[in-house]
Amino acid sequence: MSLLIQWLPLTLPIWLPFLVAPLVYLLRRQALPAALLGAATLAVVALWLVLRPPIEPMALLGRPLGLSELGRGLLVLLAGWLAFALLFFARIPQGWTAFPVLLLVYGLLAAALFNQQLVISVIILKLAWLVMILLVQAGAATNTRAATRLLVLTVLALPSFLIAATLIEQQSYQPDLAVPITWIALMLGLSFALMLAVVPFHAWLPQVAEDGPPLIAAWLVAGMGGSYLVILFELLGRYSWLAHDEQFLQALFAAGVLLVVFGGLLALSENHLGRLWSYVVLIDLGYILLALSINSTFARAAALFAIGTRMLSLLLSGSALAALRHHATSLHFSALRGLGSRFPLTILAFGFGTMALIGVPLTASFPSHWAILRLLTEQNNLWLWAVVIASVLGVAAVLRAFLVIMSPAEQADDRLETVTPESPVVVALLMALTLFSIFVGTAPQRFNVLIDFFVRSANF
Amino acid sequence: MILELLTSLPLILIGVSLAVSAAIVAMTQDWRLTLISLLVQYFFVTALLALQLPPEMTLIKLLVGVVVTLLLFWSGQHVDNALKRVEGGREWFQRNRAIFPLGLPFRLLTLVLIALVIFSLPESLLSSLVVPRVTVIVALWVIIFGIVTIMLTRDPLKTGVGLLVFQNGFELLYTPLEPGLAVAALLGIANIAVALTTSYLAVVKHMPMIEAWLAEQAWQDPSSPEALAEAVATLNDAPADYNATNGEVLA
Fold first, then answer.
1. DSSP code of B249?
2. Would the CB atoms of A144 and B201 count as touching at under 8 Å?
3. Are residues B196 and B236 in the same domain?
């Protein structure tokens, strides 16, 4: 009982979403009350996380528990992200179970980040992914490709994570056993590659972006992918032998270049706006991995900034994509042609969010992407040019999509008359995010204190 | 009682039963036989683990196996009941090749090749792990057949069973290395979650197809060879040379 009293206040971000989820489920048919209750719960959690003093590591039933500063920062960001998304869902539905299920998933992510043991964290994250599969399918009949792919990758990624965790523990507690770091790097590399959609294990992301609700796809990358990125960060901070291992850093570099190059090339060849968006997401991930592959504090700070702005850009582009799909019913270029004049602001928000993922000037990710390119220049790395060219291809792909959508329909199309116009509330939300993205992109120095704090807390 | 009975079985019998159950999952189309094999596999995985671990931990595995099989049985039965309402429904379902697009001879050839690979593995690899040699061979066999099942099928139910077989093989190697009760319990919950998701996907994929068939008697799986033949025929602007109702190619 005393253990419960001691732990209950400390674990509010885990149990509060679980507690509220059944109530939200009861309200699910009334979108606005469900969205407000869900968003209010997440606001309470975020406030609790910001105001509470740091949680010191302690043990529960012999297992180390505690929340790192990086984990705390991520949970605050995700709470804000999800609260905005839930309010957006009230206007642009993404499946009627989304409200309670996303609260449950947030609780599971919090449980994974509260746990300091990699073995337990990755199993809890697997549970969260399995729950997310229900939202990806969202009741859609017959076509289960995206959901099945996610199911397969979630199960296949777990063993390599567990083996890596066991080897890391052996290496940490019994260094004389000399577990080959190559094996640890290989297992970690494989599992992160599967879960973060690194080429050639990226196929699930375009499929989810095509078949699943767009904002749910964005949450998969932001929330679930963000949790894995933070775990990777913490591993590098906790185990300096891993952070300084040349092979591991080279693997990160190779994965980064591969992601940017393939992302740019594949985006240019796409005729589906959702799939195009997913390839641009790969470009952004590539930049983050490139930053992590450079062994310096400045590079880690750039990676952290890129993770933060990635969340913002994903929310902006994912919301705009969801609004477009809601109105146009399909995201294929042929279905979008001529719709530009009907949704100018939504398309502008999508363009801005997607450009931000590539790191175009004035957008949120520009400062971090520019810093990463500068670091590559200092290293005289020739792959820099491949990264720059692929990024330009990504920009060209977005501009091509923009031109297709803004161009007039080839023949008289009755569909254009029946499409509902963009909602003022949705446009207001999208414009607010766009303005915030511009603010982050033009005044990155405002976040220096925050980034410095997180870099220091990660023990680099 | 069950554990005593299982652990009293000869090791070779446990190993062979596990290998056969994994092969049946990968080779057969019948969903009942697949699920019975999966349940049998859970019993023998429990038996093999009980030789190395405390009974309460291995009982979790058995309990999870029963729950997982019941969940999958429910969705299999649900789809089967719907097919029974249609005349020739089962035959139509098989013809869509949703379970295995490739024929039995190909699957049998795969089985032979995998057997050859496993039995030619170097001794150094088999003895490098802390678990007994028999366990390593059986676990590798089960893991590979789990992956083969996933690769060969398009059906969510079969995919889910393949994933659970894969997970069983992995846990045979992993559980003795990490014998914590919390990890075993969480892995059990994860397996049940995999079964739940699989059940949901199986019903979501097949039920609308069956309902459409009931309504029009002419539904076609878009990824079936018949659908491909129709698409090619349309492309060539030639009249389709097959029966649109049952998918049979006429010439």
1. B
2. yes
3. no
